[in-house]
Q: What sequence folds into this?
């Protein structure tokens, strides 16, 4: 919609983004369904889709269309277009979806133990994974429509919350959300101050910080 609708296309972003997210999720489910939606098959399906979308973006960039500047700004994870109206809309959707998260507490507690442990306690493995995948996809879409992809913030925050000692499901979810919000605010502030009057998108800065952090985590786990 940013590419095809002139002017402020935010009114089209929610329905179009929802359809796009649903189509992407359907492809992942079709690709990973035979393996019982195991994390490894879903990861491979996600990597394949990411490669395909990257190729599409490169084709659009090669076209030389001036509208690509707006798309590149959104992809960078910037807060420039996060107006109060957009934040209220996205926040309302996210609060409604977050209200469903406590209902999934049992699944979120047992699934990290592995598929065999989940089956041993009588959990319907495939259906629980589908429901959690749908909930996570909807929450991610609601946030991404406003700011853009901020994958490293979403990856760092749960690890930091666990390192702080919050390991039970609900406290871990709450602290992860608060930590992610603080990381985004900090990255946005640094991006506005480091090269003032120029600005660095928060998504780029969080990626710059997050990459060394994950290298540190990998080295720590290998010891």
A:
């Amino acid at each position: 919609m940013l590419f095809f609708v002139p002017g402020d296309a935010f009114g089209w972003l929610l329905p179009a983004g929802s359809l796009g997210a649903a189509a992407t999720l359907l492809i992942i489910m079709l690709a990973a369904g035979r393996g019982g939606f195991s994390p490894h098959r879903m990861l491979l399906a996600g990597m394949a889709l990411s490669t395909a979308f990257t190729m599409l973006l490169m084709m659009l960039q090669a076209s030389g269309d001036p509208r690509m500047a707006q798309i590149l700004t959104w992809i960078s994870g910037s807060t420039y277009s996060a107006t109060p109206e957009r934040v209220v809309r996205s926040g309302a959707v996210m609060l409604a979806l977050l209200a469903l998260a406590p209902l999934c507490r049992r699944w979120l507690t047992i699934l990290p133990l592995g598929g065999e442990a989940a089956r041993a306690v009588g959990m319907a493995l495939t259906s629980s994974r589908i429901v959690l995948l749908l909930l996570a996809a909807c929450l991610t879409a609601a946030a991404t429509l406003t700011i853009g992809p901020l994958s490293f913030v979403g990856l760092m925050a749960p690890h930091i919350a666990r390192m702080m000692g919050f390991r039970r499901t609900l406290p871990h979810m709450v602290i992860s959300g608060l930590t992610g919000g603080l990381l985004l605010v900090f990255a946005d502030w640094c991006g506005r101050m480091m090269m003032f009057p120029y600005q660095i998108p928060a998504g780029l800065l969080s990626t710059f910080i997050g990459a060394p952090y994950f290298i540190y985590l990998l080295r720590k786990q290998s010891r």
In short: The mean pLDDT is 76.
